[in-house]
Design a protein that fits this description.
With 140 residues, the chain is α/β, with parallel strands linked by helices. The chain has two domains: 1-35; 36-139, 3-Layer(aba) Sandwich (Glutaredoxin), CATH 3.40.30. The protein is built from five helices and five strands, in the order H-E-H-E-H-E-H-E-E-H. The protein has helices at residues 2-34, 45-51, 65-80, 96-101, 128-139; strands spanning 38-40, 54-60, 86-91, 109-114, 117-123. The protein has a five-stranded mixed sheet with strand order 1-3-2-4-5, with helices on both faces. A hairpin with a 2-residue loop joins strand 4 (109-114) and strand 5 (117-123). The longest helix has 33 residues, at 2-34. The termini are far apart.
Length: 140
Amino acid sequence: MNGEHERFISEEEELERIRAKKLSELREKKQEMTDGPVHVTDSSFNDVVKKHSLALIDFWAPWCGPCRALAPTIEELNKEYAGRVFVGKLNVDENPKTAECFDVSSIPTMLIMKNGEEVDRIVGCVQKKYIEAALRKHLE
C-alpha cells in the first residue's frame, strides 16, 4: 500500500506541475494579446501565424491616413478577441518581403490566417462589423 500511496502522490504532483505550466502559458498568451496588437516583421511573420490558430494581421504604413483611421478598430478587436484571435500589425515599409509575398498592393489590408494559411482578406478602411463577421466565420 505504501508504494501505491507514493505513486498517487507523485501523479498528483505531476498533474499540479502540468496545471501550473498551462496556467502560466495561458496568462502569457492573454497578456500578449491584451497589451495591444503585436508588431509583426518579415522575420517573425511565419512563426507568428503558425503559432496561433487564428490571426488577424493588419498590413499598414505610418503615412497612410486610412491605416491610421483603422488603428483604433484594430486595438478594439485585439482587446475583444483576446485569447481567441492573435492580432498583429505589419508595417509594409519596414517589411516589404511579406507584403510582396501576399500580393498586398493596397493598404490597409487585413489578412486572416488560420493554421498558417490565408483564409480571408479585407482591403480598405472598413467598419468593425465587417472584420468581426469575417473573424466569427473562422472562429466557428
